Amino acid sequence: MNIRIVSLFVACSLPFTSLIGAGSGPEWTDVAEADKTLMGDYVGEWTNPEGGYQKINPSICAQVINVDKGLYHLKFTQDHNLRAEVYFSGDAVLKGKAIVAKKNGWDIRVTDSGLTGKGKIGDNVEAFSLKRVKLGSPTMGAKPAKGAIVLLGKGGMGEWQHSDGREATWSLIEGGVMEINPKAKNKGADPAIGGDLFTKRSFKSVRYHMEFRYPVEPGKSGQGRGNSGLFFQGYEAQLLNSYGLEGLWNELGGLYKMSPPKVNAARPPMEWQTYDINYTAAEFENGKMKSLPRITVRLNGIVVQKNEELRHQTAHVQKDRADPAPSEAMPIKLQDHSNRIQFRNIWIKEL
Hints:
Blueprint: H1 3-13, H2 26-29, H3 33-37, E1 40-47, H4 53-56, E2 59-68, E3 71-77, E4 86-95, E5 98-103, E6 106-111, E7 114-121, E8 124-133, E9 149-152, E10 160-161, E11 171-173, E12 177-179, E13 197-199, E14 206-213, E15 228-232, E16 235-239, E17 273-280, E18 283-285, E19 288-291, E20 294-299, E21 302-309, E22 333-334, E23 342-350
């Protein structure tokens, strides 16, 4: 019996309390060695450039992005956390223990010793050498602010429930980590397992901290890869495996159907990331709205939405976006979009 079948058998056959400590699914355990050791962010320099811009600014960054089993995409830029010029973007393949690419005057090799090669910039062919790094986040492990409510920590998932009042049926694994236990993968379970989660308490304006990560999921792409969502009074800050993508409104750090992130600050799969969000609810006077809700979003410590005005409700279909901004407090929502996203260290402070 393979791991996937075992995980589904456990989820569908045992009472929910038995899921605690049961570990996570194959999305997290069946990971290729190259994805563990070679995929990710790289930082380095052009070595002995002949001249031009590379001589006065020798720094260079790269991303090794998983596409499918044995297939990768490489992207070279000036800076990971800026919308800077892309020097090179192209596919690469795993050959033995190395990821290699040779295209348009670029010759690239990625091994456990680093990323090396040569690239054609204008009329010059320049050599480079980069080392793998974890960029992380300055707010990783942030302790709850004074007066904050811990929504996920050592106390487990007790602050969360499903829309029908069921206690949270997502998986609670080692270290107080909560993982989406997708409804789509637990069809026929009785009682039901999976579905969106909502806080038992309701909120208006808040400061919110959350740590999360998505698995590799080779072969999946776009909205089918590492997809979830975080909702404040119905407005969504998108969660998606957006590593190496353009950074659109439906990607990580974006406000769904509304505003793209200022920069794509998404980290690679398997790495923990942070959302630090200040959400300001709409203000009303005598039943009339004085100001729209606003949101500031920091992804991995980088401001990707700055006091952004929320002009319409989050909805996939345009006609459903006309609903007015809510005046009442509402639960925070985490979306089950059929991907096994993990969460930890969630706390919230009312403003």
